[in-house]
Amino acid sequence: MQGDYTQVVNNFIGTNASGAAAIANLKSGIALNFCFRCSIGDGTVSGRNLISGNIEHGITIGPIISGLEIKGNYLGLQADGQTALGNTLDGIYSDTNLDYPIKVTNNFVAFNGRNGITITTNIGVRQVTNNSIHSNGALGIDLAPKDFAGNPIFGVTPNDPGDGDSGPNGLMNFPVLTKVVAYTVGANTFVRVQGSLDTNNAGANTIQLFLSPACDASGHGEGQTFLGEFTVTIPAGGGVVNFNQLLNVPGGITLNAGDAVTATATPPTGGGTSEFSACIPLLAPTLAINDLSVNEGNSGTTNATFTVTLTGAIGAVDPVTVNYATANGTATGASDYVPTNGTLTF
After folding, report:
1. With contact defined as beta carbons under 8 Å apart, do 52 and 23 qualify?
2. In the prediction, which pLDDT does 153 show?
């Protein structure tokens, strides 16, 4: 596809008319080159493109691309937005060095045979934000620099101290997560996220947090569900900055202890997004009560003292409370024990 200000909306590319089976293009669904201020999708349901089932990539980004936006599309799914119909290789593949800036936002990128998004050159797909990326064959986002023979080096790119290396998206360091804990307060759900970012990109770097049912085999997550974002301010000259942030989780998202949490980092002023971080399990506060046995005797009273232990609540947004009450088992209230109830506060 060539031509300035070209907009591609509301198409099924690589599928049949129902969007449920592949009629594959022999290469990529869309191949872009020599395009200024073009867009694929417009971020609305009515403007969404379905780009699935193609022999190579969903979208290939070629040379001389500027101001491209890819937003709100399905890449690797059927029209129902749930069922797999992957492109054979990547959902999006950027292999050029003259494509600045590019924004990839609010897309659903899943079930592709290799990566969700691959960026292979020093200035590739730049800002990759607010997407749902999951269930791809390899990584969700792969910043894959080329070797001396010009072949991409696929796989997780480790962080480097100070983030001084160069490559696709500047090989932006991903955040390091150390703990993510979920809490429910009334009708609201929160997550407390702790970790650090090591980068030389001074200013307000955006950390986006994502949830998936399980971690990838690589140990680094993809990001199926967007949980929220916050900024980490890096001082002039760069450095390591720790963060301890509280996010109010959007309604309708179910959090389960053990879910995989991962994050990306995007530097200020249009810089390129990192790969997904290593994932860590979501924690939730848990209570444990010790077992106890007492001899009731034939007269007087005997106290029974239970120890209630709370774990996983470091950084809770409010005091943690739990309601308790006695209930009959082998003993009967009033005749064998004094019934009681109340609220325990930690």
Report:
1. no
2. 95
Encode pLDDT of 272-324 as tens digits: 999 999 999 999 888 889 988 888 777 788 888 889 998 877 656 567 788 99
8 Å CB contact between 218 and 138:
yes
Fill in the amino acid letter for 240.
V
Q: And the tokens for 119?
A: 């960026």
Fold classified for 170-283: Immunoglobulin-like (2.60.40)
pTM of the model: 0.87
Residues contacting residue 254 through CB under 8 Å, at least 6 positions apart: none
Reference 262, options 304, 212, 333, 203; nearest CA is 212
